[in-house]
Amino acid sequence: MLISTKGRYALRILVDMAEHQTENYITLQEVAQRQDISEKYLESIVRELVKKGIVAGQRGKGGGYRLCAPPEKINVGDVLRTTEGSLAPVACLSEGAAPCSRAAQCRTLDFWRGLNEVIERYTGGFTIADMMRKGPDGDDYII
Amino acid sequence: MLISTKGRYALRILVDMAEHQTENYITLQEVAQRQDISEKYLESIVRELVKKGIVAGQRGKGGGYRLCAPPEKINVGDVLRTTEGSLAPVACLSEGAAPCSRAAQCRTLDFWRGLNEVIERYTGGFTIADMMRKGPDGDDYII
DNA sequence: CTAATTCCTACTATACTACCAGAAAAATAT
DNA sequence: ATATTTTTCTGGTAGTATAGTAGGAATTAG
Q1: Which of A6, A74, A75, B59 could disulfide-link A128, Cβ–Cβ 3.0 to 4.6 Å?
Q2: With an 8 Å Cβ cutoff, are B90 and A115 in contact?
Q3: Would you say residue B79 has pLDDT above 80?
C-alpha cells in the first residue's frame, strides 16, 4: 500500500477545508464531524500540514485552521509527500536513503526509477481544486 | 512504500534465473549466493511464485527451480501482485476490499483510481526480459 | 476569568516486515 | 536399501509502522 490513512485523510481534510472556506478559521471539530474521522487523529495529521506551511493554525477562541494558498495552488504530490515522508515505491529511491551498493549492477533499478517518475508525475499534476465538487455550493447532489 | 523487499527480491530472483537458465534446474542456494539474500527468506518468496505458476520446483537431487515461461512472457505486474497481494495505492481499490460507504461522495476516489491505473499500466508493460542484461552472456560488464 | 481552540508529549494495541529453525517429503545416485 | 540433496511445510520471533488515544500546556477572544 503506497498511501496510508494519514495521506488519504490529509487530502480529505484539505478538500473539506477548501469547500467550506470563509473569512473565518475552520475548526478541527467541524472537519472531523463532516469527514467522520477521529478529531485527535486529525490533529496529528493537520499539525504536519502546518509545519509544512500548507495550512495555518490559530489558537484560542475563534481560532482554527485555514489554507495557506488557494486550492488550485495546493499540489497533491506535495501533500502526500508531507504525510507519507516519501512517495518512492521502493526504499532505495527515497530521498536521503543510503545509496545501494548493488546499484551499478542492479537490473531492476531502471524499472523502479520509471515507476517512481510515473507516480511523481501523476500526483504532481493534481491539485486540491481538481478534487473539489464543482457544484454551486460544494454540497453533495443528493438526487 | 508500495513495494516491500519481498517484491523486490522476487524480481531479482526471476532476473537471476532468467540470466542463468540452462536445461537443468537452478537451486535456491545458487540464487541466494549470487543475489546475497538469505536462502530461507528466498524460499518463502519462491514458494509463492510456484503457487502462482510463475516458476516450477523439483525436489531431490538435481532438483531446483525453473521458469515456467520465457522471460519475455513474465509480466512484472503479475509478479508484484503475487508477492504484494495488491498494487493498489489505497486500501479501497484492492481487489476484494469492502466497498467504501463514502464512495458516492468521495472527492478523492477519481484521483486514486487514476493513480492505480498509472501504476497498473506501467508495471503491466514490463517483463523480466526487459530487465535482463543484454550482453553476450548475462554477466556484468566490469569496466 | 472563562471558554475555546491549537499545540505538544507520551502511550497503546494491532498488524506487518523480514527474517530463522527444524523437520517432513520427494527424487536421485550409489 | 541407504545416503544425499533438494523442495515443501509449519511455526516461530524481533523490530517497526499504523492508527489511533489520553491528558494537559499554551494562546486568544470575549
Answers
A1: A74
A2: no
A3: yes
